Amino acid sequence: MKTVLTIAGSDPSGGAGIQADLKTMEAHGVYGMSVITALTAQNTMGISGKLPIPADFVRAQLRAVYEDIFPDGVKIGMLPDQMVMRAVKDTVLAYEHKNIVLDPVLGSTSGTAFSSYESREYLMRELFPVCTLITPNVPEAEILTGRKINSETAMENAAKALGDAYGCSVLIKGGHFTANEGFSDDCLYHGGVFEWLSAIRVDNPNTHGTGCTLSSAIACNLALGFELTDAVKRGKEYLTKCIEKGLDLGKGRGPLEHRIF
Ligand code: PXL
Fold first, then answer.
1. 209 among known catalytic residues
2. What residue owns the CA closest to ligand 1's atom 10?
3. Pick the CATH number of 3-244 from 3.40.1190.20, 3.10.50.40, 3.40.50.300, 3.40.50.720
4. For 136-184, how does the pLDDT look when each residue is reduced to its tens digit (9 = 90+)?
């Protein structure tokens, strides 16, 4: 059985973070593992608290996993501070890891910022280069590049700027971008080439955890042996199906149905 690890924060209401990641892994028939980097207190209405896990303990969790069950794919999500980022980087380098998908969690669908300026710089400089793929949405890509993104060309420019600067593939997700009415088009920059992945925008306001779900699904598909472009396409198809299920839970922006098969 293929094995996939998520290194991310916890969402006790089950929609985002490691809970979404593990549900996604289950749906892909891989063995899921989780290293928790932060606890959050949150539900579909927002985040009311965050408790970072000390970096030494993140390291201990990583060691426990890697000494025993090597992950075929990794998804990296919320990293609360630079010490935790460092622990993750050291591990990835020590094991010469491949198939690493990093979702740069700078904000969430519910709008709460997770990272300081310094952490963001550190994330870009130290972690992006060891990743296979990073998956910012448009607002995150604007923060990362310092440029406004208001067209498809601007999405391509941002993807290329990040990919060329940090030597990783880049998927900029168009879910927050409304220029192409009725569609949610993502721009993949991989191997110096752009590929546009189009999907009809599903009319469902319940999108809590979409970023977590997509990045995990891509990590699962990489672990299952798909090439990057196919892994991204399959991940997007999976996410679209999860949204189409139309689950309606909670009083705010609700979670997805991960069990689609
Ligand atoms: O999707 C961003 C994200 C990542 N990690 C955790 C989250 C969220 C969004 O809510 O809660 C733990």
1. yes
2. 108
3. 3.40.1190.20
4. 999 999 999 999 999 999 999 999 999 999 999 999 998 777 666 777 8
